[in-house]
Amino acid sequence: MVVMANPTSRPPAPTAPDSGFVESLMDTDLYSIGAYFCDQNPGLVEEVVERSAEIEASGLRDWAERERMAVEEAFGLLLTGLAVRYYKAVTG
């Protein structure tokens, strides 16, 4: 016996995200770093995100050498860019 699905039926609507879970995402150091940077340096947000993506693509050491920057400074830039992206992803 073959059972045909009702063409007018719809899949169940996705449930709303658990607000407790979303709130827990905001209770991290990475979120705090991103929030602080975005609040204090709104004009630099896009540049930091762009540069951190370049570091990810090139690798930390290679990018730092190419930009004539200390690896520690490049790592700080990478971490800040990641924090900003995390903050923006959580807050929408």
List keywords for this structure.
92 residues; mainly alpha
Textual characterization of the structure:
The protein is 66% helix and 0% strand. It has helices at 19-25, 29-40, 45-58, 60-66, 71-91. The longest helix has 21 residues, at 71-91. It has one domain (21-91). The model is unreliable at 1-7 (pLDDT under 50). The chain has 92 residues and is mainly alpha-helical.
Give the number of helices.
Answer: 5
- Structural class by SSE content: mainly alpha
The end-to-end distance, rounded to whole angstroms, is: 48 Å
Rough shape?
Answer: elongated
Tally of separate domains: 1
Largest sheet descriptor: none
> Could you list the spans in which at least 5 consecutive residues all have pLDDT below 50?
1-7
The fraction of residues in strands falls at under 5%
- Mean pLDDT score: 83
Task: List how many beta strands DSSP finds.
Answer: 0
Rg value = 21 Å
As a percent range, the share of helical residues equals 55-70%
How would you spell out the order of helices and strands? Answer: HHHHH
